[in-house]
Amino acid sequence: MGFIDTIKLRAKTRKMTIVLPESMDVRTMEAADKILKEDIADLIIIGTDEEIKRNSKGFDINKATIINPRDSDLTKELANHLAELRKNKGMTYEQAKKLLLEDYMYYACMLVKTKRADGVVSGACHSSANTLRPALQIIKTKPGIRLVSAFFLMDVPNCDYGSNGTFIFADSGLNQNPSSDELAAIAASSAESFQVLVKKEPKVAFLSHSTKGSAQHRDVAKVSEAVIIAHEKYPHYKMDGELQLDAAIVPEIADYKAPNSEVAGHANVLVFPDLDAGNIGYKLVQRLAKAEAYGPICQGIDAPVNDLSRGCSADDIVGVVAITAVQAQERKNESYI
Q1: Is the domain of 188 the same as that of 284?
Q2: Do 154 and 79 belong together in one domain?
Q3: Are residues 108 and 138 in contact, defined by beta-carbon separation less than 8 angstroms?
């Protein structure tokens, strides 16, 4: 059984309500059909009657709850609530209502904020900024979290590395050039996400073009300093670096390049030095190794709100909805990231 099949089974054990605000994209409707047929989650789809009718042709979404912001009784209540939340920014009721009618992501986040839904999945036809801005303004970060970051859950076929081919790649979707302190925080959040989603012990490698001082550069220094910070702040996790990719995941290479490391050769959480490396890395593995790549999955928001790659398929959306549902379950169990 593959990783995402296990996640789907977990999602079915306690169904969560997930909002899909991108009714303007046919992939959303195809995914909704599959999610409802597989009984993975309860769905709320936001859109006008015209959008729903046009894009759901050929798909069965009858079991979804459809909310048309233009005629829903909820809109007035949510607009009042949003205006109150943003009053310090000068938002009026009229501005809040206009935002809810024009940007369904704000509507989706308000449904989560008012506990009518458990999570949101968006981004198939919107940028990451358009997906995350409403979440950070309305739902905000989880108390005690250093920063919000994003990862891809990679499921590589026929792979003995990582956790039987399962990895977290972070940050692969949000933070452009994290500092040493931010890299350490990303590593800790990613380790906890790995525990929650994969149910295995995380082994975190801080990646670089250098292994244990084999090269000298300020970029290497940033990563090696992140390792020191991580060991000080998060000693309960197995973390090591700086490590080249082969030293991080291949035992034979690790024995030569990083002997005595409890992470080298066995890493399943890969922390990239910057967003360029993380984004390129996940897409290389996805395309060349034919891996399943689910994400960007967000961590650090006070409820699960997850982004999608704009090149995603309907099956990718199904997988991210299942992951979001499991995150929502864990949030109710008070172990959510």
Answers
A1: yes
A2: no
A3: no
Enclosing domain of residue 234: 149-288
Same domain for 136 and 190? Answer: no
**What does each of the 337 residues of the chain score in pLDDT, given as a tens digit?**
688 999 999 999 999 999 999 999 999 999 999 999 999 999 999 999 999 999 999 999 999 999 999 999 999 999 999 999 898 888 899 999 999 999 999 999 999 999 999 999 998 888 777 888 899 899 988 888 878 999 999 999 999 999 999 999 999 888 899 999 999 999 999 999 999 999 999 999 999 999 987 888 998 899 999 999 999 999 999 999 889 999 999 999 999 998 989 999 999 999 999 999 999 999 999 999 999 988 888 898 999 999 888 888 999 999 999 999 999 998 877 654 4
CATH code of 113's domain: 3.40.50.10950
Task: With respect to residue 296, please indicate whether it lies within any of the assigned structural domains.
Answer: no
Q: Taken in order 186, 329, 114, 76, is the CA torsion positive or negative? A: positive
Give CA separation, 97 vs 43, 79, 86, 114, 279, in Å.
23, 5, 12, 16, 36
Question: Total structural domains in the chain?
Answer: 2
In a domain, 337, yes or no: no
What phi, psi does 22 have (nearest 5°)? Answer: -100, 60
pTM score = 0.88
Q: Are 248 and 270 in the same domain?
A: yes
Looking at the fold, whether 76 and 194 belong to one and the same domain comes out as no
CA distance 15 to 114: 18
Nearest Cα to Cα of residue 68 among 45, 99, 94, 43: 45
As a whole number of angstroms, the distance between CA 331 and CA 189 comes to: 14
Distance CA 107, CA 112 (A): 9
Residues 135 and 26 in one domain: yes
